Amino acid sequence: MSERNSAYFRAVLGSISAYKPGRSVVGPDGRSVKLSSNESPYGPLPSVLDAVASAATELNRYPDNGAVELIAGLARRFEVPEEHVAVGAGSVGVLQQLLEATAEPGTEVVYAWRSFEAYPLLVDLSGAAAVTVPLRDETHDLDALAAAITERTRMVFVCNPNNPTGTAVREAELTAFLDRVPGHVLVILDEAYREYVRDPRVPDGVALYRDRPNVAVLRTFSKAYGLAALRVGFLIGHPHVATAVRKTMVPFAVNHVAQAAAVASLAAEDELFERVAATVQERDRVRGCLLTEGWDVPSTEANFVWLRLNEDTLDFAEACAAAGVAVRPFAGEGVRVSIGAPDDNDTFLAVARDYPRRNRG
Question: CA dist 196 to 135, 161, 223, 242, 276, Å?
């Protein structure tokens, strides 16, 4: 881009890269196994498809900008007042709405790194300064995170379980951290993978936010509910937070079909969570197989596993791609592998089993 043609763009665009979604690859036998995007391996439930089909007959109409039925359903599901709920185009959309409401030049946003790869992109675009705190043992170092807060801090993100490592902080340490955060700082508990948590020591953010006005929770319908293509996320927080998020939502950001599918998914949770349980079972099987093969795999509470490969990261990802398996590499750090259907997981495990032992752990 010439200097003349870039004169009207913000300077920050020259220093950031666009978000890169997980890729798909095709093996020599034509097979394509996508384990790069943390998607549910299951298609929509029949009841959800029926709701989508019905909603599709009204595509000539604008959606309900207030998402009244969806917000009412979420309030019932989580036993919170409706005024505590706001929605957006995926949890990342709600995150952007939060930044538009809080961040500006001269302020700071604190988060662990490595964590969700959209954080630096969205924070940089907001005009705030990103303050990153290294992980410790592949998980959040909450003491260091608290120490990084200053008078300029507006918001702190805690991704729990953390993406891409799958690790989770426990209730005692998270509660102690929240007690240390000053009231002028908004803490966002990013719980996109909450439904996959099985460790009883990992807290539910909805229980923690209730008596903390500066704490809010992000959730999504993209993962456990299997609606990644429709982009529905939501926030649960106190009215002053939820109201700010509603004000900064792009009008009609959650479309009519997405709202209908989300409402139907809430009604079908028992059936959906049977699928979640199957994914958790596969997660534990995959991790167990990797440990048996000599891999060092941190305990995970999400729908993926993390392999710390350092300089061998891209080489391992290419070995997977050669077998038709797409994983998510973070160059120089490691590989995140989503949990898919059993046959797809087995294809990945065969690559991991044959990969040279010198690169493990």
Answer: 21, 9, 9, 25, 7
